[in-house]
Amino acid sequence: METDTRSQRSAYVTQETISDEEQGYDLDLFCIPKHYAADLERVYIPHGLILDRTERLAREIMKEMGGHHIVALCVLKGGYKFFADLLDYIKALNRNSDRSIPMTVDFIRLKSYCNDQSTGEIKVIGGDDLSTLTGKNVLIVEDIIDTGKTMKTLLQLLKQYNPKMVKVASLLVKRTPRSVGYRPDCEFLDNTYFLLNFIISRIYYMLCSAFLTNCALHTFHSIPFQCR
């Protein structure tokens, strides 16, 4: 399996930082569903920015992985909407390319949380026939990287099946002192506050509603995708 060190990763996308002092956008600028309005404070990443950066990410993924059969592996449940949007862009690029390649989709669930606390134990659910990944380019799509332990466990599991290449894209990365140092290939960055289950379990809805927000007193201080 091809591995990536930090020095080997390519800086595809210019980094645009949203600092900790970023005030975000007023809710009055957006169409906020009434049943969410009382729970939200500010909009930090508008939907258009998310879609533009997702499209750019898809382009770079195809440059990196588009020469061989790609298996797109979605980490459920939270990663589904991000996965669907990213895959739509990748499929469009692949469909219109003069060197289109086979693409398949698979799903897996990783469990390491009970309520809002990490249990320290990782359970991999689904993906019974991971032997189909042998010799393929594997793209793992996740909604959030917390400590990185869960993803490292998944990568160790996949290594047993000898994929040709593995890349990881995560919508959010939590900055935490508990991090094991793992960083995905492509990411948003998040701050040290725990993202409410309300947002993470419904992240697909927030994306459809045209924004990523902060909820109650918890904040999203993030930067758009950066690929290394």
From TrEMBL:
It catalyses: GMP + diphosphate = guanine + 5-phospho-alpha-D-ribose 1-diphosphate; IMP + diphosphate = hypoxanthine + 5-phospho-alpha-D-ribose 1-diphosphate. Pathway: Purine metabolism; IMP biosynthesis via salvage pathway; IMP from hypoxanthine: step 1/1. Its main location: cytoplasm. InterPro entries: HGPRT, PRTase-like, PRTase_dom. Pfam families: Pribosyltran. One of its GO terms (cellular component) is cytosol. Keywords: Cytoplasm, Glycosyltransferase, Purine salvage, Transferase. It is found in: Cytoplasm. GO terms for molecular function: hypoxanthine phosphoribosyltransferase activity; magnesium ion binding. This is Hypoxanthine-guanine phosphoribosyltransferase. It comes from Lates calcarifer.
